[in-house]
Amino acid sequence: MYGVLSYPQYQRLKKFHKRLYMVIIIFGLMMIFTPHMVAHADLFGFYVPDVYDEITENVKETNNILAKAFKLSKTSPYTVVNSIAAGTESYKAALAVRNASKTTALVVATLLLMVDFFRKSINFEWASKWENILIFLIKILVIKQVVQNADVIVGHIYSIFNYINNEATSVTTSFLPCDKIEPYKATVKQSFIKQVSKGWWDYWYDKGAGNTTDEYTYNISLNAVKMFYPNAKLPTVKEFTDIDSFVDAFPSPTDKINFFPTWEMAKLQPLFLIMKAIAYIVFVIVIGRVFELSVYTIFAPLPLATFASETSNEVAKNFLKNYIATVIQVAVMVVMFVVYGAVTTYFVAQTNGLRLVNFIILCALGLGIMKSGTWAKKICGIG
Predict the structure, then answer these.
(1) Mean pLDDT calculated for residue range 286-299
(2) Measuring CA to CA, how many Å separate 308 from each of 98, 116, 305, 324?
(3) CB burial class (10 A; 0-12, 13-18, 19+) of residue 116?
(4) pTM
(5) Is the pLDDT of residue 277 over 70?
(6) 307 with 316: CB under 8 angstroms?
(7) DSSP alpha helices (H): ranges in the chain?
(8) What average pLDDT does the structure give for the chain?
(9) Pick from 290, 320, 293, 303: which is nearest to 380 by CA?
(10) pLDDT the model gives residue 32
């Protein structure tokens, strides 16, 4: 019934397991709630600098994603479209769509001009003045040139307003505070006593591997850490030869006596995920923006043709506003990250370093990034 064990043996084994689990639980609680164990490794062998290093690594990774996204935002849609190899099916399709767009736009412009002319010619006073007729003829020539050179006109508009993006992305090298990354090292010479204190297995393993020293290296940015622990402090000494002095040099980053590094790292994971999610959202928006600008460029002759009539020129005006809004959307996102840093500093100070505020501000930043297109349109007077 109990396999190879007799019933008494099974009961003894069961009692042993219960005691073992109890010891593990008690030891874990001691690691969490015992003050004198705060500065040293917790139940899973993590230290306070492990938490700092994890924060720095995740913030740095998020910054790298953002840097690549904003670098991609400098890519002109004309560069993308012109990169299509001539003679390929894709090139032929794009060229056919552009030519068809221009042809259709000329037809639309002609119809609008005819309607506009017949509407005005009913007024005898307007038709009797040769200046009005001359202006109308000049208007025909101008509209034709606008339609045929719509891509050039839109290209100049892109260059003018993309200047704002270039200025914004050139000065903002780090969108999240992760500058001044300092390396902290602890090189500990191994000894028989220290190795045995760590465990017999570690001793024989290191001895067999020929390891004579234990090296611990942590790359930490205080500014990145302060995003989550505003009261965090780093030691002035950066190299240690004793692990105890190394760990003791990093005080608890909060006002609490007990600091459980493993638990803190687990609580930080949702924040890290939100940061990276925001970075990838920016990436998707930037790529979508390139698609949008490319479509606007190819179909630009159609809305610009509506300039031919006074009754329909609002379509062309709205098109230009939407185009400009799409161009400056990158600058709007950059400003959001700049404001994010200021808002974080302000509200964290007002709430005495309450970490939940960081979480809320990060969520607000993510929502703001997703609405950056809407805000850019509002800047241009749309919506």
Answers:
(1) 88
(2) 20, 8, 6, 21
(3) middle
(4) 0.72
(5) yes
(6) yes
(7) 7-33, 48-73, 77-82, 89-121, 124-127, 130-148, 150-171, 192-198, 200-209, 222-225, 243-248, 261-299, 301-304, 313-327, 329-350, 355-370, 372-379
(8) 76
(9) 320
(10) 47
What is the band of 18 on the pLDDT scale with cuts at 50, 70, 90?
Answer: low
- What digits encode the pLDDT tens for the residues 166-213? 888 777 667 788 878 888 887 766 555 455 455 545 555 555 544 556
Other beta carbons within 10 Å of 183: 10
What one-letter code names the amino acid at 17? H
Of 272, 290, 281, 271, residue with least CA distance to 367 = 281
Question: For residues 277 and 62, what is the distance between their CA atoms, to the nearest angstrom?
Answer: 9
Give CA separation, 225 vs 51, 108, 234, 268, 338, in Å: 9, 60, 10, 11, 18
Query: 57: Cβ–Cβ under 8 A, 6 or more apart, which residues?
Result: 219
